[in-house]
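Here is the promised in-class demo. Please do not try to memorize the tokens; focus on the logic of going from shape to residues.
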């Protein structure tokens, strides 16, 4: 057995454990970062979670964290973090999912990256996503990103690289963003906690028009406590402990937003399991189906198309340089805007209706499936037709998008396993301002039914973190 196989490592520790260890002097940020860089070098060749790794720069930044005299106020002191590749990191290009839409080296960090660094985090690199963030399937002509739970499956998208990195322990937490489910879908695929904050809670400043207000930044993590720390850092809030919520009334719905697409048995069982956890925590559950108008799906799809077209125009990229699935998407976006199908009034009406759902049904939260089916295969989706990509995305992941259009906070939490061993999750949605409430309920799930934090076989180093020994 090699020496490195028996030495303790901080790979596999949570963000909170790492930050506490660095603040107390149990470990240096430099050692933590070195441990994770070694793990990335071993494991990521198979997973292709990272687009670029900042090895030397990350060590230098970790050394600067170690040199700070006062670490007490750094909630992410020395914590290795990955950033999604459509969000500017100073000194790196912003790839946006492919070489065709890559922008030049950024001179300054995006605001959310600045906040992560300000909290003591060390940016290890940027994670892969599909071109323009359009798909729940992460690959391009250079690599196929794979799910650590089953490398024959996609980790989802568009924050697929981020989810794969966290599920394999390459980093304890990772930044992502969510325009129509791009945090929650990969979180569900990879057995993670994924919170999409409500509109305006975290600065967006992404793409041409923030996808017409649909997109939000958030974090993917293996624990609710890490999700809460990450959220509060991104939102620029003082850290506060989660309080287990007292008796809530939670609506439960299996109804699909997409006609003809229904949850499979595993996802129905996931909602039932989540309902039992709610009851065990002292909450009441009642049937409560949102009414998803047919027009909502058409408006959402038209906005999805138009967001791609707006991003391509802003980037000054000729559509012929895009992947063929993206070319079709952009062309349909231009058509949808010319025809007047992308209207803020429609989105505002759905937001009002969604907020009204909670008062109309006298419920505090809504519980739905996270996905309708298992993650699709990990393959070269970027070379397949637009129609094949559309069918795959809509069939397996229809439940997230309505809450982006409404601008409401929502969270995905693991609640079990499918028969094939893949994780399965449930989604909770709340009214505006309910992020900490959602996290509090998710924490009750975790206390009652702890999940496996990393995919089987990961992290592939040593014997586990000294923080958890």
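The designed amino acids, position by position:
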């Amino acid at each position: 057995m090699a020496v490195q196989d028996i030495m303790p490592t901080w790979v596999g520790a949570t963000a909170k454990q790492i930050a506490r260890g660095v603040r107390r002097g149990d470990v240096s940020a430099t050692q933590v970062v070195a441990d994770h860089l070694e793990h990335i070098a071993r494991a990521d060749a198979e997973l292709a979670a990272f687009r670029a790794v900042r090895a030397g720069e990350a060590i230098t930044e970790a050394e600067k964290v170690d040199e700070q005299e006062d670490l007490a106020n750094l909630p992410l002191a020395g914590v290795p973090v990955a950033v999604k590749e459509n969000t500017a990191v100073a000194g790196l290009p912003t790839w946006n999912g492919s070489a065709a839409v890559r922008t030049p080296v950024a001179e300054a960090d995006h605001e959310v990256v600045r906040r992560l660094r300000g909290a003591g985090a060390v940016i290890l690199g940027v994670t892969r996503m599909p071109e323009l963030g359009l798909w729940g399937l992460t690959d391009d002509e250079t690599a196929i990103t794979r799910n650590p739970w089953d490398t024959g499956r996609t980790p989802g998208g568009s924050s697929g690289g981020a989810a794969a990195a966290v599920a394999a322990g390459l980093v304890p937490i990772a930044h992502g963003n969510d325009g129509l489910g791009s945090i929650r879908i990969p979180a569900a695929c990879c057995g993670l906690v994924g919170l999409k904050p409500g509109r305006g809670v975290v600065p967006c400043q992404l793409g041409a028009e923030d996808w017409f207000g649909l997109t939000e930044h958030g974090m993917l993590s293996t624990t609710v406590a890490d999700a809460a720390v990450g959220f509060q850092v991104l939102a620029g809030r003082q850290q506060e402990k989660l309080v287990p919520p007292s008796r809530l009334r939670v609506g439960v719905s299996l109804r699909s937003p997409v006609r003809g697409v229904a949850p499979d048995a595993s996802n129905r069982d996931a909602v039932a399991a989540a309902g039992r956890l709610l009851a065990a925590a002292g909450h009441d559950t009642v049937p409560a189906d949102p009414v998803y108008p047919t027009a909502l799906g058409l408006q959402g799809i038209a906005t999805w198309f138009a967001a791609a077209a707006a991003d391509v125009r802003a980037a000054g990229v000729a559509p012929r340089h895009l992947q063929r699935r993206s070319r079709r998407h952009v062309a349909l976006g231009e058509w949808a805007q010319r025809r007047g199908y992308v209207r803020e009034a429609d989105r505002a009406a759905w937001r009002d209706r969604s907020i009204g759902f909670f008062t109309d049904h006298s419920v505090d939260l809504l519980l739905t499936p996270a996905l309708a089916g298992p993650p699709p295969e990990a393959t070269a989706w970027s070379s397949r037709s637009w129609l094949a990509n559309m069918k795959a995305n809509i069939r397996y992941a229809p439940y997230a998008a309505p809450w982006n259009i409404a601008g409401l906070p929502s969270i995905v939490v693991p609640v079990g396993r499918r028969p094939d061993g893949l994780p399965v999750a449930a989604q909770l949605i709340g009214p505006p301002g309910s992020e900490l409430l959602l996290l509090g309920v998710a924490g009750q799930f975790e206390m009652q039914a702890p999940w496996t934090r990393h995919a089987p076989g990961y992290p592939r180093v040593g014997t586990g973190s000294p923080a958890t020994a």
